[in-house]
Amino acid sequence: NDTATTEIYLFPYTTLSDLARDLGTAGIAARLGWHRVHFANRFRAVTGFTPAAYVAGLRLDEARRRLRSSDEPLDAVARACGLGSASRLCRMFRRHFGGTPGQFRR
Fold first, then answer.
1. 50-95 pLDDT tens trace
2. Rounded CA gap, 83 and 91, in Å?
3. What pTM does this model have?
4. CA dihedral 103, 77, 65, 54 (to 10 degrees)
5. How far apart are CA 44 and CA 34, in angstroms?
6. Which sign, positive or negative, has the C-alpha torsion 64, 43, 15, 90?
7. Is 8 exposed, middle or buried (0-12, 13-18, 19+ CB in 10 A)?
8. Nearest 5°: phi and psi at 33?
9. In three state form, how does the secondary structure of 48-74 look?
10. At what angle do helices 2-15 and 51-69 cross, to 10 degrees?
């Protein structure tokens, strides 16, 4: 259905301001008025990612942007992006980008 595909493609633009909140698949599906399983299946079919992996990518991209453009402490960056703590930010950053946030800032 074209409406469903459009809503999924618009998904990042409706949630960027919500990165600090734990939306979860059920919460996102509810915002769209869909069942969580239908949403997860459709989302993966359209994007190639699970909703959780996609949100994690958005959070890491926002963290990278903040690291590049500010001198905020890692804990503040992590909390603002919904990653919880500096240690979780470091673990996920290393896994996703191949280096630590500190290395990225240098």
1. 888 888 888 999 999 999 999 999 999 999 998 999 999 999 999 9
2. 10
3. 0.79
4. 100
5. 14
6. negative
7. buried
8. 80, 25
9. CCCHHHHHHHHHHHHHHHHHHHCCCCH
10. 30
Neighbours of 86 (CB within 10 A): 17
Amino acid (1-letter code) at residue 3: T
CA dihedral of 38, 40, 42, 43, whole degrees rounded to 10: 150
d(CA 61, CA 54): 11
Q: How far apart are CA 65 and CA 42, in angstroms?
A: 29
Three-state secondary structure call for residue 45: helix
The type of residue at 18 is: D
Residue 1 has pLDDT above 60, yes or no: no
Tokens matching residue 104: 């990225």
